[in-house]
Design goal:
heterodimer; A: about 160 residues; alpha+beta; Nuclear Transport Factor 2, Chain: A; five-stranded antiparallel beta sheet; elongated; B: about 550 residues; mainly alpha; four-stranded mixed beta sheet; 16 helices; 5 strands; about 5% strand
Amino acid sequence: MKSSTRWLLGFGSAIVVLVLVSVILVLTMTDENGGSLLPEDTPEGIVQRYFLAIESEDYEQAYGYLSPAATSEESRYNTYEDWHQGLLQRKQTNAWKATLGESSVTETKAVVPVTVDIFSPDTPFEDPVRTRRYTFALENEDGLWRIISPVYPLYLN
Amino acid sequence: MSTVKRVFFYTVSFITLGIFAGGVGSLLTLCFDLLFKGETWRYFAMAQLSLGLAMLVIGGVLWLLFWRATQRQVSADTGEIASVIRKLYLNIIRGVSAIIGLSAAAGFLSWLMSGVPLDRFPSAGLAMIIVTGSLWFYHWRLEEREGQPSPDAKTLRRWYIYVLAGFGLVSMSAGIIQGINTAVFHLPVWGEDVVHGTVWSRDFQYNMSWVIIGGLTWWFHWFYMAKGDIESVLRQVYIYVLAIAGGAIAGLSALIVFLFFLFGFAFEGVGTAGEGYFLFLGWTIPMMIVAAAIWTYHQKVAREEAEQLGERNLSPRRVYLYLMSFIGLSALVSGVSLLLGVLLNLLTRAISTEAVVASGWWYDQLSMCLASLIVGLPLWLYFWRKTLRMVEEGGVNERGARSRRIFLYLVVGIAIIAVATDLVIIVYQVLNGLLQGETGASILGSMAWSLQTLLVAVPVLVYHWRTLRQDQRFGAEKLPRKKRINIIAPDGAEELVSLVEEKLGSRIRRLRYLGETTGEIPSLSEEEIEVLIDEIRTTPGSGVVLVITGGRVTVLPYEEK
């Protein structure tokens, strides 16, 4: 067998193996929102549920995790209708994932950093993943953690 | 005329003609507005009238003065007619006026299709058509009557022809695709949310008018003006780069999107999009069909013309094969890097303890990489194997072919830059992450794209570098340089020059002999031609001047200092 043909066969086989491994791993190891649900009485648990509600398009539920005091002070999106409308404009059909970082919690306040990766392929040699970073601030209101910032609709596009 | 004087006269003519045309256009627009839109326009009329008249009178008088002076200098002087500046002026004016006029014509045609509503009368559009149409016709006739007495003049005319042919082809194709997409969008199968109005909408009318205008433009420039121009390099660029490569890129991009959505459907279903999920069919399928038609037709033209060009037919074929290999390799590289992205993501997920909420994340990435690989891998393998076969048959000459060298150096160059950039980013991210105490998963996440592209660029670099080195070992870089061949001949020697050109298989720079001609143009037999070709090839030096005069052909070798 010629050297050039051997190389081509090598490349082809390696790619086929990679494809098979990836398909099997993705189909078997990933459920889109896999992993355990964090406790609801923690700031991380609230932020996680906030994103889960947006993902499952249960917007009223998502809005419910925002602090009513904070939303009333928001200049543009201070009603559920406005917030919902804004979110729909900023949430396109691109796939995304939100990763919760290490949070810092005091008795009544908490900060949870979140990295949102958005998959939006454009040109062939460009990184198809765009990253947005949000810092969620939460406040404990009568024993319930609620998001006080950002209360505006997130950019998920 | 001196060059500076020429630049001065044509620049002033160009600017004053623009002012004059603007004035005429403005006044015509005003007339149409008053005629068709009635009293409501009277408020704006005075300012428009004043400006239009000022532009028309001042621009018109100046243009007439300068243009008449220019034309007097030109009269029947072939040197002036052939000047690059004059030809540039004429071709720019007819090119620009054609493109502006055609855009206005598409708008006007669309208005006609919409049922001639007088309240939307396109006054500015019609004025633009009249002004640019007159400008185009006048300069087109002038240019065609004068002819192109120099190679530069011919080249500038070709620029005009192929730019307009390309413009027409792209406009027509875009009109067809968007028109079908609009029609598909209005089909009663997408659920209640999607359908609005009727198919015969303004969008559809506009698309159809572009199909007609673009089609006519392409037909006129491609079939009439570019007819028989098969020796032209610009024509090859138009055929191979715009039509064949452009068609392939457009069609394959549509195919990748088509497969992406199909895989998405297979993995996740239609989701909340409902029936509207399949709207992508409305533009991807027409785009694939139109691109395939453009690709097939121009490939056939290229093959036919290559046959007519005789021995040189390998060159365009080679360009085509390397171009397609490059497109295939690009899609393949893109697919493999996305694939590695999925694997790296899985790895990050496995070593990370952070909570993740994902929406379509894995399936979308997998769908895109599968779509790119299904298109890229077979395409690259098919065309690259063809080039390998050509190398086996053609030996060192094939290895030394310019298109092959360009392809290999381009791929190696891009791969080296990619590897270097990726390494810089990876080292930076690792050091920065370690110094800032970030977790392994976080560091891996921030350098994921660089790692993906590095892992793809390295094998691509190694493989093509090896191929390049192999070519060099076979002597591809040491092939004797092509000789520059010039011929000085009086009028009437065209047949002999073409015969020599054909036998040599390369282009000859033709110079017209202006001295006193003695003796007839020699009529060489087949054997004498062969002897002449042999002499041209074996004679030392970097170039040769053939002089046809005194009833014989003299070969004068030279070396550039």
